[in-house]
Amino acid sequence: MDRDLGLLAVPRPGEGGAVTILLPGVGLAAAATVVLLVGAGALSAAGLTTVSPLVLALVLGAVVGSLLGPASAPEAGAARFTARTAPGVAWVSRTVLRAGVVLLGLQLSVPDVLGLGWRGVTVVLVTVAVTFATTLSLGRWLHVPPATGLLVATGFSICGAAAVSAMTGVLERRPAGARDGRAGGPAGLRDDVAAALALVTVYGTVAVLALPWLAGALGLSDRQAGLWLGASVQEVAQVVAAAGTVSSAALATATVAKLARVVLLAPLVAGASVLLARRAALTGAPEPDGTPRRALPVPGFVLGFLAAVAVRSLGLLPTGVLDAAAQVSTVLFVGAMFALGLGVDVPRLARTGRRPLLLGAASAVVVTGTSLAAVLVLVP
């Protein structure tokens, strides 16, 4: 169960013990996290609120990783540094990532979501279902790698970078021989994550600029505009930036609609995990570390996420604790994204970027059009 939960996993001990092995990589990720959060705060103060610190973390990680190169690089100094930090970086990209997803559940309250009424909840459900299914189908039609298609579909239909992070935890559980048939294993997955996060940022920023103007041009009420923005824009920060330019009433509705989408993260991730587990069982493939595949198909961190949602919904924690948990969740996500970015293959990502870019554009059109149609039909 510990391996499945992903919160207690540590590298196998070698020289000096597990903690000593982890320290260089964890220290690197921690230092980068501090720099990134300070930088994101400066950007926010300058009015660039649509720039997610998670995306900045992945970009910085990719830059640092490109400068250091792989452990087999001819530059001895860089190679030794990379080899020393690799265990800790791997631990951060897996364990810290999943801990962040669990804490994300403390931001969600089921009673708040139900406050949207059946019409608002239906708008969110229809938008998420249609966007996710259509994006997956378009990804297959465009011959986008399956992992990229799944991450893009999750990011655009649910909640941007956080949803991409959660689905990454599921894809990491795939057996080594079932990674889209591409060489590189985990490195290929990091490229998929980078592509999905880039698309969420690009098209989410376009939505922030375009959708409030369109809402006014279409004559939408504050409630209609808030539901539309909350059900279609990717990142929470992007939703706040977009709806805040409409009205305070639209912002309140948009925020709750966005949280309703986040609630759907757990069943979506669990469903994907069950499907991947069944496919692995049919092929008889073992876990990535060679051990027999466990019977529990749903990742433990998803169960932790649901437990956190229940705690928040029951009002068991004071507001100060919930606010602190939200800040800690952001810190964990930033560190994990930096760790994932260290393994991104930038040249390969640039060579394969055109089809994912088209998929992102199509998904943006689907989520925007579906949510608008649902709002116009259901919300007076």
From TrEMBL:
UniProt keyword annotation of tRNA processing present: no
Keyword set includes Transmembrane: yes
Keywords assigned by UniProt, alphabetized: Cell membrane, Membrane, Transmembrane, Transmembrane helix
Family per similarity comment: Belongs to the UPF0324 family.
Topology of the protein relative to the lipid bilayer: Multi-pass membrane protein
Main localization category: membrane
Localization (cell): Cell membrane
Protein name listed in UniProt: Sulfate exporter family transporter
UniProt-listed InterPro entries: UPF0324_pro (IPR018383)
Pfam families the UniProt entry points to: Cons_hypoth698
Transmembrane domains' residue ranges: 21-45, 51-70, 91-110, 116-138, 150-171, 193-215, 227-253, 259-277, 298-318, 324-344, 356-379
